[in-house]
Amino acid sequence: MAEVVAVIASTHHPFYYRASTSTGEDRPPFADEWVRKVEAFRETLTRARPDVLVMVGSDHFHQLWLDNMPQFLVGKAPFYDANFSNEEREFGLPRMLFKGQEDLSAHLLRGGLDLGFDLAFSNELRIDHSITCPIITRRPQNDLPIVPVYTNIFAPPLPRPQRFVQLGKAIRELVESWPDDRRVAVIGTGHLSLELGGPRQFGPHGPDPEFDRKAVEWISTGDIEGCLSEVTLDSLWNPGNATHGFMDFMLMMGVAGEGRKADYVDTYDLFHTMEAYFTWYPNGGGRS
Amino acid sequence: MSKYLLNKFLFTVDRDPELVERYREEPRATVEWWEAEYANRILGCHTGESSTWLRFDDTEREALATHDYPKLFELGAHPFLTLTLFIAVFERDYAEPLGFQLEYARRLSHHSLPYPDIAT
Question: Which residues of chain A are under the pLDDT cut of 50?
Answer without folding.
Answer: none
